[in-house]
Design brief:
- The structure is a single chain.
- The chain is mostly helical.
- The chain has a single domain, classed as Arp2/3 complex 21 kDa subunit ARPC3, CATH 1.10.1760.20.
- Helix 1 crosses helix 5, helix 2 runs parallel beside helix 9 and helix 3 crosses helix 6.
- InterPro entries: CbiM/NikMN, PDGLE_dom.
Length: about 350
């Protein structure tokens, strides 16, 4: 659901740009509590994975397709504030390098995909976790439900924005029905992808899943008579022992992202996504303006310059990883005293 230039008028685009700027600025500050030298590379990998999967449009009906938005997925894996930054990096790279999403609409896309889906996905996930058993495996269905709800809500926010500043006069009832109908179907695909991804990470490293923190049941020991007693607290030496390396997950996840962007992207659906399909059906697709970088060789993921989509995808993954890791390492660097104070809170 990448909004192009021209769907919304200038005042509305400026307003969504202000919302996006404020959201990113707040996320830069709040993400300090979620990031450190260990989690920053994981956040970079999450951004790259979202970029790769967003290239894989899947069919959702006759003549239309959908793709992952990734807000709920990123929030569950690395935390909601870091997720806003992840999606913002992805959207910035897509807009500047691949002409995917308008430049004047960048604030709109960050507001819809980078903020709305993150907030809704995270809130719904936490609400579902509150009624499920307190164990890491519960994050899987909770994240899937959060992802499912986040997509149609983002679609409804777009309808609201179009009602305020759309560049075409049309029936808002028909627009609402079309956007909600198609994006509910897309939300099902979002839920499946999110659930499978979170399930894979929870299965191998539940300690690295942000939403699973604090969900481990207290360790108990069984007495000879069959009763259970709390296990003793670990000794200082055991508590200070080095944690398991994140390298295997980083390498494995990076290879998966490269394979998705470099190989699987060739098989993505070529049908228009939900927003483009609705815009054509409702008669406002013609209001879209050409992208300022539409003649760039990588525009439309290499199609303009004759570059294979897989090559463009691999380049995009590399750019997102480098930009993301640099940003997240910078954000995560804080004095030790500040980090200890945050841990106490």
């Amino acid at each position: 659901m990448h909004v192009p230039d021209g769907f919304l008028n200038a005042p509305t685009s400026v307003a969504t740009g202000a919302v996006a700027a404020a959201g990113v600025a707040l996320a830069l500050r709040k993400a300090q509590d979620e990031l450190d030298e260990r989690t920053a590379p994981l956040a970079g990998l999450t951004a790259a994975f979202v970029f790769a999967v967003q290239m894989l449009n899947f069919p959702v009906g006759v003549g239309t397709s959908g793709h992952l938005m990734g807000g709920a997925l990123a929030a569950v894996l690395v935390g909601p504030w870091t997720a806003v930054l992840c999606l913002s990096v992805v959207l910035l790279v897509q807009g500047l390098l691949f002409a995917d999403g308008g430049l004047t609409a960048l604030g709109t896309n960050i507001s819809l995909i980078g903020i709305t889906t993150v907030v809704v996905g995270w809130v719904v996930t936490r609400a579902v976790l509150a009624v499920l058993p307190k164990r890491p495996a519960s994050v899987v269905p909770a994240s899937a439900i959060g992802a499912l709800v986040s997509v149609p809500v983002a679609a409804l926010v777009f309808v609201l924005l179009f009602a305020i500043g759309g560049e075409a006069s049309l029936s808002l009832g028909a627009l609402t029905a079309s956007m909600l109908g198609w994006h509910t179907l897309i939300g099902i695909g979002e839920a499946v992808i999110t659930g499978l991804t979170v399930s894979a990470v929870v299965a191998v490293r539940p300690d690295l899943v942000y939403a699973a923190r604090g969900l481990r049941a207290p360790l108990q020991l069984r007495r000879p008579d069959g009763s259970l007693v709390p296990a003793p607290e670990p000794t200082p030496a055991a508590a200070a022992a080095p944690r398991a390396s994140t390298r295997p997950l980083l390498v494995g996840g990076g290879l998966v992202a490269l394979a998705l962007a470099g190989i699987v992207s060739f098989f993505a659906s070529s049908n228009p996504d939900g927003l483009e399909y609705v815009a054509e059906g409702e008669g406002f697709l013609a209001t879209a303006r050409d992208h300022a970088f539409g003649d760039f060789a990588l525009a439309d993921y290499g199609e303009v310059g004759g570059i294979p989509v897989g090559v463009a995808g691999i380049l995009g993954v590399a750019v997102v990883v480098v930009a993301g890791v640099l940003l997240f390492r910078l954000v995560g660097r804080r004095p030790a005293a500040d980090r200890e104070e945050a841990a106490v809170r």
